[in-house]
Write a structure and sequence with these properties.
There is one protein chain. It is built from 18 helices and twelve strands. The chain has about 450 residues and is an alpha/beta fold. It folds into two domains: about 25-155, no CATH class; about 175-440, Rossmann fold. An eight-stranded mixed beta sheet has the order 5-6-4-3-7-8-12-9. A two-stranded antiparallel sheet has the order 1-2. α10 (about 195-215) crosses α14. The chain is globular, with a radius of gyration of 23 Å. The N and C termini lie far apart (about 50 Å). Bound molecules: zinc ion (ZN) (2 copies). One zinc ion binds near residues 117, 120 and 142.
Amino acid sequence: MASRIRPLAPAFRTLPRTAAARLPSTAATSSLAAQTAAAARRSLSLKSFFTSSKPKSDPFTSQFEPVLEQVNLFHPLSKSPLPAVRSKAEWINNHGTCPVCKEHEPEEKSKAPKYECPDCGYPTHCSEEHYKMDKGNHKHVCGVLREVNEDEHDLRSGRRMKEFEFPGAQHRDEAVNLSNWDTFLYTRGFLSMNSERSMRHVSHVLTYPLTIGSVLHQSSPYRLGKDLTVEGLKSLAALRHTLHPAIIGGITQAQDLRTTATHTVRIFCLGARAESHLPPHIYMQLAYLFPNTAFQIHFIGPDAIPPHTKSKDPHQHVHYEQMTFVYDSSRYEAYHAEAGPFNPYYDIFFLFSPGLAHPATREMWKPTIPLLLDTKCAIFGTGFDENDVMNDVNEIESSGYELDWLMKPRENVFRSLKHEINMTDVRQSAQCNWGIWGIRGRRYDVRPAEE
Ligand SMILES: [Zn+2]
Ligand SMILES: [Zn+2]
């Protein structure tokens, strides 16, 4: 098992960035930023999520004239009407793996995958001959590849993406149910969630804010005994004390929380990549879960860059309704000294797919983890599959830190339902924030000495 993760990890470590590359656009968010919280529903153009700035004449970015019908979403990658998909085929042709060659041929003789499986459309093998030899293995991944193929064409089909018309603030009397994606989307009034495809699209965009929200919220799906340790419940109770204050009389929901909120909750995302590139309005779905709380989200790391910016400034702030976003590309040690002191009632850390054990990032995390444990604040981490999660967990356990587990590693209820394909070996796929775990630096109760 452990041997499988080694070749897999480096490719996936770059996945969040690949995903982020599909999120840019300039005009969409700056105009959105001006919209108010009161807007009942936001209609978000497909453009703002999945296309880069292309010439206006490009038919594939047109929102109102669908270029691909729903019955016409499957295309062999190399023959796709979408240039982005065709270039993906080229990339796999150049950097992919033919599993039969890999197994049976010396490296200099193994050939690149050029042959496209007729059922999923991916270049999977070097030739039809090797494809046929390997069909028994390929059938286990073919279904996921086909799904990803159709999803990608759907995202760029030009249809009106109703599933991205997100609801605004929730009414005080409404209760949100965070048991799973279905109940969350239903109780929050998301539209058109009647297909698994829509769920995959939306969960992919919302996995970061909802992973955070589902841990923090009093209606969290994670329960004492089953998922949370006693220490975990204590840590979250402290944060919930701040997040769910008794409603103060006379303050209306629409009032500016920066002046009425009793405390600001700070969420620190370390080693931030894709999570920092999401447009701020996506994080409003986290803020709506806590209508009385003001948030600061700090994205820290060399890839922590605000969406839709050309600025090279290493430290930037964006204010958006009840949230402030801080983007900082400096080393964490320096940031830590400036952001402190930390308080377990107001501060929490998230490490999204950090790769604590990964050779490329392991050393980078070494000085950081003890600093985080020192704060006695809750620290939550995620990983893109079981191996990735367990590698991080084993790294933590073997490092001899003085810590308590808050949440033992488990599947994340709010993982992305979308599969990300490893383009260097399409047999492998992963899901963003598949698993989750939580730790905290150990606190010692003051007891009289025994001797
Ligand atoms: Zn081959
Ligand atoms: Zn196939």
